[in-house]
Structures are given as structure tokens and as C-alpha cells.
Amino acid sequence: MDIIELSWWQLSIGFLILIIPAAILWWYKTGLNKQLAIATLRMTLQLLFVGYYLEYLFDYDSAWVNTAWIMIMVVVADFATIDRSNLNKTWSLILPIFGATFFGIILINLFFLELVIQLPTFLEAQYAIPITGMVLGNCLRSNVIGINDFYYNLKDNKERYQFFLACGATRNEALHPFFRQALQKSANPTLASMATIGLVSLPGMMTGQILSGSSPMTAIQYQIMIMLAIFSGTILSVFLAILFSNRFVFFETDMIDPAIFKE
Amino acid sequence: MTISIKSLEFSHGDEQIFRDYSLEIESGKHTVLQGDSGSGKSTLIKLILGFLQPDDGEISLNGKPMDTRAFRELRQKTAWLPQDLNMGENSVRDVIYFPFLFKQNTVSKPSESTVLDTFEQLGLHNEVLDKEFSDLSTGQRQRVGITLCALLDRPLLLLDEPTSALDRSSKEKAAELLLGKPSKTIVSVTHDPFWIKKADKVIEL
User: Fold this and answer.
1) Alpha-helical regions (H) of chain B
2) B106 phi/psi in degrees, rounded to 5
3) Would the ipTM clear 0.85, i.e. be above it?
4) A173, B101: Cβ pair inside 8 Å?
5) What is the enclosing helix (H) or strand (E) of A239?
6) CA B27 to CA B184: how far, in whole Å?
7) CB burial class (10 A; 0-12, 13-18, 19+) of residue B150?
8) What mean pLDDT, rounded, does chain B reach?
9) Which of A154, A158, A163 to mutate to test the interface with B (most CBs of B within 10 A)?
10) Helices (H), B34-152
11) β-strands B15-25, B3-12: how paired?
């Protein structure tokens, strides 16, 4: 199967479809058209930039450069996680969440890329960068849900945590119910999408592979693998992010440092 | 277990709650703290447990100034009944048994019949054990908290308004359960004349 190349001219025609949602948003005076324009511009420029650097990364294809690039992606995800979790960017959160996400993503990469796919070259860019991007994007979403739930649940139910401590719990024992709830909340969206995949939606990666000429069965094999990677990566990164950050955000008295909260 | 507070200074925001405040809680006695709302009674309990840090002053346990380790040790010898026990979406069974999953408490995990006996003493029906904690009335929640304090059987009891939602007969049963053992050191925050009569010492804040 040959792929139909998309020209810049054809792509620019594609933008015309935005007239319909823009008109609907304008008619109902939602005030969202400025945001729509900015978001469209950002999406286009960011993806063009990604296209150029991916071509460079694929040509260069060095495990070191690829690892460095993964680190940059993790740093961006780290700051975005803290910010969207409504927490302050303190070192007590930046470093542990970076460590958790980086460790989680590297472990998932090594397992799937080196053990399952068995890449001919270590961390080959064509596989490592897009798969890391997909797993990391999902880790970011789950981390935001899990970390926000864990810390704000703890803040809102401080007396329950204190009650457990006063019943003789160690800090980890007293945090256990908060940890459990954060894991449940962060796992739910991925579990729901795993349970309905193929029925409700055809995932983007699989669609992309089919469009670029892969057989549907190959695309499905990769999609199953990526779903396993996403689920494992998200749970691992949420677990490690809470575990690592817990070492730094509590005072010796087992009370949480209020400086981490924005509200 | 004697707790001494010397020259305590504590403020919350702009409000100074304790200024050069000293107090002694004697071992094996029942001390009642009373005072107006906002006078710092519940705050004092949280300071003793190390949940709040004084701006200045010293809290000592058996004559030794308390550090982080001592606060942790004290919590392992304490049963604390907060004013309004909020345990979220959990069954009463979970609320009662969860503290007995803590390493320190596993050996003293009570049997179901012990829990139900204590319930009976406090006038709670057996079915309460499998109800959602948040569905209980304030008085029932208070009695579940008292059950837990009794089952933990700790040498130090810190009780914050333990009888505010109880009727006379439940108060008497709660007093039997919590105040019946002479070896315990008990600190109660209360306005209840019934409970105040049971005190060895009353301190006005």
C-alpha cells in the first residue's frame, strides 16, 4: 500500500474546516475564538518544530542524544505536572517527580524497546522517541490526577491523617488510604480507555500506522503493546512520584509542608 | 505519664492564642480543659501531639523536653478522639479495624465479639458495624470513636468534646469505658458539667 503524500497546499485547505466551529463559538458568544486561534497557531508551530527535530534525531540516531531528548521531555512534563496539579514549583516536588517520571519511562522503554521489540540499535530514535512521547503524555495526565488528588485530599482531610498518626500509625501507614485513592483515580481513565479501545475509538497510533502503509494486524500488535506500556508507565510514575515526593514534603513531625500548595 | 508545658507561645496567623502559658498534666489523673470557643483548647491537644509547633516554649514528657522522636513515641501511647471524626466513605468496620492494621497495633486487634460487646455497652446496635460511617448520626459517630479509643487501650487519652452529642445514659456508659481505669492519664476538652464532675483537675483557658 502506498501512502498518499499530503502537500502543504492540501494541509492549508484542511484549516478551512475551522470556520464551522469558530462560527458556532462566535454565534454563542463563548469568547473562545481568541483561544482557538492561539491554540491552532501553537499546535501548528509546535508540531512543525517537532517534525524538524524528529528528522534531525532520526538522521543522527545516537542513544545519548535520544536519552538527552527524553530527559528534556521529562523536564517539561515535570514542570507541567506540578503546575497542573495546582502545586507550587518547589525543589521538594521538582526533583522527586522528575526522578520518578524519568525512572518510570526508562524502565518501560528498556522493557518494551529492548526486550520485547529488540531494536537493532539501542534506543533507536524512530521507535524510542514516539513511544516515549506517547507514554509520557499519558504519564503526565495520570500524574496530574494522582498527585493533585493525593496532596489535596491530604490537605482537605488533614485531621483524618492526624487521627491515624495518633492511633500509632507510622507516616507511611497513615498515608496508605490517601495513596490508595490517588492510585485508583489516576488508573481509572487509562483502564476505561483500555476497556473500550477499538469499540468506541480507533487509537491515533494505530490509525497513523495503517495510513502510512502498515498492515492492520501489525498496527494492532503495536497498539496492544503501547497500551500495556502506557498503563504500566502511568501507574509506575504515579506510584514513584508520590513515593519520592513524600520523602521531601513532610516535616520531621510528619506534618506536610504547606508551602507546596497554591491554594 | 506527666506532660508539662512551659512558657508556651503560639499564634495562628495574626491571632496570638497562647502567650507565656504554662500547664502541668499529671500522670494518672483526669484533667479537664475548659474555656470559651477559640481559647485554644483543641489547639493545645494538637500541640501535645506535635501536629502544631509552638512559636516558643517547651513541651516535656515525664520531665524530658519533647523532640520529633518523642512526639512519635507519644502518639503510640495515645488514643485521641477529635471533636468531629470525619472518616470519609468507609464502613464502620473499616474505621474500627483500620488502626489495627498498623504494625504497632496488630497484636491487640480485637475480635468481632469484643467490638460488639463494646458497642452494646455504649448502646450501639450490632448492625452499625456494617453501616457507612458517614451515614451515622453525630452521636453514633461519637460512640464509634469512643469504642475505638477503648479498644486501643492506651495510657494517654486525649478527648475533644467526647460527650457533646450523647444522652445522659450514653455519657455514663462512656465514662465507665474511658474513665474507669485509674492508671490512665486523661485530658478532656469539654463544656459538659457531667464530664467536668468526673475530673480530678479543671483548668480554665
Assistant:
1) 41-48, 68-75, 92-97, 112-121, 138-152, 168-179, 193-197
2) -60, -35
3) yes
4) yes
5) helix A216-246
6) 7
7) buried
8) 90
9) A163
10) 41-48, 68-75, 92-97, 112-121, 138-152
11) antiparallel
